User: Fold this.
Amino acid sequence: MTDGIELLAGFLAAAVRVATPLLLAATGETISERGGVINLGIEGSMLAGALAAAIGSSAGGPWSGLAAALIAGATLAAVFALVSVHAGADQIIAGTAITLGAVGLTGAVYRAYYGTAGAGLSIPTLAPVEVPVLAEIPLLGAALFAQPLTTYFAVALVPATWWYLFRTRGGLALRAAGESADGARAAGVRVRATRTLAVVAGGALAGLAGATLVLAQVGTFSERMTAGRGFIAIAIVVLGRWHPGGVLVAALFFGAATALQFVFQASGTAVPYQLFLMLPYVLALLGLAGAVGRVRAPRDLGRPERAS
Amino acid sequence: MNARPGRGRVVAPLLIVAASLAGLAGVLAIAGYDPVLALGALWRGSLGSFDAFASGTLVRATPLILIALGFALALRGGMLNIGAEGQFLAGAMAAAWLGVHLAGWPSLLAIPATWVVAFAAGLIWVVVPVVLRVRYGVLEVISTLLLNFVAEALVSFMVQGPLQERSGIYPQSDPIADAARLPLLPGTRLHLGIVLAILLAAALWFYFSRTLGGFRLLAVGTGPRAAAITGRIDVTRTAALALLVSGGIAGLAGAAEVGGVAYALYPNLSPGYGFTAIAVALLARLHPGAIIVTGVLFGALETGAGAMQRDAGIPAVIVYVVEAVIILALLLADARRTARSPAVAGAA
Amino acid sequence: DRPAPDSSSSFRVALITPGSIADAAWNSGAYAGLLRIRDSLGASVSHVEALTPAAQEEALRSYAAQGFDIIFANGFEFQEPAERVARTYPDAVFVVNSGSRAAGKVIPLVFRIEEATYLAGMVAGGLSRSGIIGFVGGVELPPVRRGERGWTNGARAVNPAIASRVTYLNNWEDAASGREAALALLRLGADMLHHNADAAALGAFQAVKETEGAYIFGANADQSSLAPDRVVGSAVIDLAHAFLLVAREVRGGTLRSEAKSFGLAGDVLRFVPNPRLAGVVPAALSARVRAAADSIASGRLDPLRGEEPGP
Amino acid sequence: MIPPALQLRNIHKRYGSTTALAGAALAVEWGETHALLGENGAGKSTLLRIAGGLERADGGPIEVGGGRAVIRSPRDARRLGIGMVHQHPTSIPSLTVAENIALTAGWRVQPREIRGRVLELSGALGLPIDPDSYAGRLPIALKQRLEILKALAARARILLLDEPTAVLAPLEAEELLRVLTGFAGVGNAVVIVTHKLREALSAASRVTVLRHGAVTLVGNSDTETPDSVSRAMLGGAGRPEPSATRSDARTSEPPAIRLQALDVARDGRYGIALRGAALSVLPGEIVGIAAVEGAGQRELMRAVAGLIEPLRGVLEVRQPVAFVPEDRTTEGLILPLSLAENMVLGMGEQAPGVAGALVSWKAASAATADLIARFGMTAAGPEAQAGTLSGGNQQKLVLARALARNPKVIVAENPTRGLDVAAAAEVHRRLREAAAGGTAVLFHSSDLDELLALSDRLVVASGGVLREPERRDRDLVGRMMIGAA
Ligand SMILES: Nc1ncnc2c1ncn2[C@@H]1O[C@H](COP(=O)(O)OP(=O)(O)OP(=O)(O)O)[C@@H](O)[C@H]1O
Ligand SMILES: Nc1ncnc2c1ncn2[C@@H]1O[C@H](COP(=O)(O)OP(=O)(O)OP(=O)(O)O)[C@@H](O)[C@H]1O
Ligand SMILES: [Mg+2]
Ligand SMILES: [Mg+2]
Assistant:
């Protein structure tokens, strides 16, 4: 009985762990897509953030790692913004190229910095922080209130993003830019500047997501370690309907599906493991279909502002 | 301007590409590599000799061109199919499945048969996104993307399970029958797939530019409301059909890769052709003829990248950076021609 | 430290890897082998990453056409393309790591990793308190599966009631997934882990470090340094050494057209205990492991079938 | 002397080979309402867009309040107190009315607060609007109203309006002009573009007339007459006489449109828009539908055009039917496509150049060039994008295309919206011509005068019910429209 509860608690904690980097990246992508820019380069920003976190933390501790990750993620996103927002080039290709470049760049820098031996498990990490009292709650306590700081930050970001998007002038301008670049411009919004900021902020959060993998989870870096999480974050944005709250739910859902996948495999069934590997994606598809009503993207998503 | 096939100039883009290559040479030199050697290898390994061109560049270009053609077809109708990777794998699975059973068939039947099943498999792989889009309004961008991951897992399952080779040890299928293998250009690795790609490009070019159906597809993609009200076009049906066929074409690419290159199903059949092909199609502004050119360009880039590693000792990771810079440069050059892209035209 | 084509040497060796050479195991080991051949034999060397069948055959052909003497191809998937290319270029030697059969100058290298993992499994079976052991695999490839089979059989040899759990990640890079997979195994009671997941396994080491009473066994290289208090030992393949042996034979003209297989009998494959944890392993268990090693080396024990060593 | 509120001098603007403005000028004093007139394509919108920061002139100085002004963006314009109401609404469809206003005005985004401020503003101006509606869902008249509210909320002192009354019913238009003159009267400035000359001369104190991008007349509205103005617009040709001939309904033939006990659901929403409708239109007959927004006229037109499946009842329409939709920019045309392509879009298999499944774009272009010439459209050519046409020329394209099909039935929503006087007269002539050739015409117009002038028979739609007035009487019809008779 208590065993069952412990397992459940462990499962919930795993779901939250898996969800955290996805939530960070997806929240960032929500901001950028609300502004009308779809950034497939966040996979690259995440990877760059992961490496920057590793190097930063090796050099100056976890906090330096976090700062370095933010900067690295934002820098790649800035390059992306330069090409796609300012030059008006295609966002899908630009994002793919940024990710490809990030794979190469992180690989080269990693090899140069850590040599052939790699980083091992030498990187200083962020210890989980227990929230007093709350962490004692049975079942949920350990899952939700004994997590690394990045998790709390990711969750706190959800209402903050909501507030920004729906309760501030900047957020309104951002949404306007995403819905109709022409309309926003006519209303006095500086569309390119607005979009650039959103993309860079999104990239910084993706960098932080990468840092979470390194500093709050594995304590090391490996090439291509983000393994497509950036693309999954983009799926989560859609699943969450471009809404911070929805994105939170979708990220947790995805985290839970993935955690469940591992539990299934580890409990040793005869079912081919590949079916479990498909599970999160199939569930996400079902979730998309089951979500009540129609999903609508920001109208000008993917369209550069016309040069005037 | 819009999703129209482009009528842009070529000179400025070429200048930008040249400038960025010069910049690259500088960066390589700073990083301690011999830029002349590196760029020389890039050239020699891709376009510098007939063998490199035929056996390397064109072989790599074939799946890119095919997938890009399908992508262009769908996007012309406003559907953004970023799941070609999955459809490609579906086609490859089907072609391998049939291909191993065709011993004794005449090639004239065996090859078309694998193409038909692969087309069907790719098409079936997009049925779910189409139904989700039509019935539930789920954006095909996302459903096709998610299905890529499912396809990967499915291939992994197939090569360990139903399609695994006879000895049951290796995660790959049995080799397909000789009859199902595509004929090669003698002395090279260039296979019949390139002919398929060129014929399909010609057919799509004709369809896009000379037929009412091709125009109506464009209308659906650029102005769905006007297409429905003024053009009296069944917008949903038209777009759905385009997406289905684009899936089928990606499936064909899978068949060509199995029948012309790999001769068996392997899990690592695609290095992300589905994504590279998007760049191929968009840079070509969805124009079928231009897709052949951009497809060859990207094929050359990927083949040349190998040569840079082999012949100039440049590590793969640096080569990725080089590729990324070249793509971004092409993109910037291209963006100067026109300011608008159709990227998510079907989103609303 | 990179290979640059150096035409001064007449002995030319190439390596094709199906993935990054910074994977902390399979490909990095092969790359180390390439460098060792360069340094020991003065060969001029070249390397390329080739991820797909199209790129792989292209790489094989290019090297063969350029007259390389040996082309190491680091994976079973090169077997058939290598045979095809060898028909056109009969002079080159193609060494297919983990390949399936010898065919002319296409020579497979087979590492009987199960012989070492069997020993690791024995230790794990003896040390496990929960009676559950776990294995994290990258992609389900033949050597990975053989390693897991050896590991499980070894544990059963010591404790027939042991339960062995397996999780596959379907990639080699995702260390965070490696950690989650390990944590799930540990939550479900496993206390001894083993892996064959290259860089992704780093996450499993991290998970073990964080979990009280859990231990792990390294793979491919001596991984004790990753978690000195938690790594009981490693099933080591000295790929570099094997590469050097093969290269020497080619150079000396003594290489025969047959599969080259490496097991505990040679000095390529070993089970290397972590000296820091020597005290954890009871002497009796150590002795059994040593005896099993002898039986395997002398061919009396097949780790894939898991028969007890005869008296 | 007080410097003018807004002064543009010697403004030039070219688009490729098209000259939109060739030395145009405009001077507006504080306190005045200024009408900017000209035929379709004369350059009115372009001139306003330059003052509003949406386009940049190739040359020519702009002064605001006497000071030299650099206007690079709508943002700059707003800073200078210039507000603009565009020919086509620019509100953001998926934001609410309140959000759209807050965005333009730069208000803090507090839902309750902005809702209150919107209600206050709209109340004070006498332009009521629901702050919580999504802008995209508003009927076109309210969309227009929202544009004006946005400009005023942003505290514009100089208001530029591009055909704000084109989409309004006469009463709404009067109401709006009253608000605008009031706004100007308290020391602000208003520029209004319109094709309704009477309206211009009565509401504005001064007029400027453009022709081919240059000024042909600046005058006081007291001294100018519709005739003098239209001579300036058309280059001395004088005002076209509206023809008053009635068409001959062919009573011997069966009706081309027949509906009986027809129920139609509300377009895109729940509920029934049209109940038990009965109507017959004979070949050769022109029937006008008078209605205020939401009375069921939209559903009637679209059901007859075959775009909405009726719920029940009889609906017989002779084919082919040509439909002229109300919203030319999203329903009638695909703006990024060329004129030739838009022609093929509308005519389908019957388009010149189309043979079976094949299209010859050369032939289609030639036919489109012919259409451009016959309808006197100002366009760079058949390959020009529809989006580069002036509003009125876009409308001409939609009409020309519909007529070119030789349809048995024409269904038109506001067919002359945005057309200049001459062009509107030309359209009326062509519709009559079509009717004379046996085509049945069913049209709706928000302009009662147009309805009375063009239709052989008038039907009023009100509250989802169709009724025929006893007399063709402006007052009676007006009262029936709002359900007061
Ligand atoms: N973006 C553009 N590209 C090319 N030509 C344009 C563009 N915008 C306007 N034009 C051309 O400039 C001329 C003036 O257009 P403008 O819209 O100012 O006319 P207008 O007086 O407002 O006409 P209308 O009464 O029909 O609205 C037209 O010939 C039009 O085709
Ligand atoms: N009955 C109507 N009268 C006037 N305009 C209408 C009517 N119905 C729809 N429209 C207009 O047509 C356009 C599209 O309407 P539609 O109902 O298709 O919106 P939608 O696509 O469902 O919106 P969304 O996707 O944002 O939910 C809107 O601009 C709307 O104002
Ligand atoms: Mg809709
Ligand atoms: Mg105009």
Observations:
- The pocket of magnesium ion (ligand 4) is lined by residues D 44-45, 87, 162, 390-391 (CB under 6 Å).
- The domain at 257-481 of chain D is CATH 3.40.50.300 (Rossmann fold).
- The mean pLDDT of chain D is 90.
- Chains D and C do not touch (no CB pair under 8 Å).
